[in-house]
Amino acid sequence: MLKNQCNDLDLKDHCRMAPGGAGRILIIDVDADFRQRLRKVLHVDGFDVIESDTCENLDQILSEHVPDLVILEPLMPNVDGFTACEILSQHANTRRIPVIMVTSLEDCDIIDWAFDLGVFDFMTKPIHETILRNRIRVLINQVRETSEYQNDHNKMMSQVQEYESELRKFKSLFREELIEHKRTRRLVNHFKQAFQTHYPLRKKLTEGDHPHA
Fold first, then answer.
1. What is the pTM of this model?
2. Long-range contacts of 4-8 (CB under 8 A, 24+ apart)
3. What percent of the chain has pLDDT over 90?
4. Most CB within 10 Å of its CB: which of 90, 97, 140, 160?
5. Domains plus CATH for the chain?
6. Average pLDDT, the chain
7. Closest to 41 measured CA to CA, from 102, 89, 122, 84
8. How far is the C-alpha of 86 from the C-alpha of 92, rounded, in Å?
């Protein structure tokens, strides 16, 4: 259910900038105190913050407010953070959203698994707020610059396709003109040959030397 609904999302239709252009951040963590503390910090930087204590409603959240970045606790009940991250990374419409996993665990296997799933960054609790804030800004700016580059690339490719389409039309018209030119040339040659073939007869007629009946 969650995977199918995420596949239908379109970032272009849902993604809206937060006031001041800072961005929108989704925090998913069972720790309410952690979410509240983080929300206060991010609000100071002008971010619009969405909170959830579970990954089970991820599809509903994304259908209403697609974030610029997700801060995610991997060990969640029912639908864990790894499953949610894997779902995000599997679809073109959501895989560009950077994910920062934040957990109290310091397990290398968990960290490796997170990066294998496409997580952009991994931090252990208690987090250093200044470091987190700077990492968030860097990630969001990187994604936006990549998006702008992709948009410019798409526009350029669209122009190239239009040029190629016009070129194909020109080639088609040129081919038709060339065929018509060859047809006209053959017709002219035919009349020229006919003119040369009947030239002695026309000469006699113009000189009054009519053939005897």
1. 0.59
2. 5/59, 5/63, 6/58, 6/59, 6/62, 6/87, 6/88, 6/91, 6/93, 6/94, 7/91, 7/93, 8/93
3. 13
4. 97
5. 2-155 (3.40.50.2300)
6. 76
7. 102
8. 12
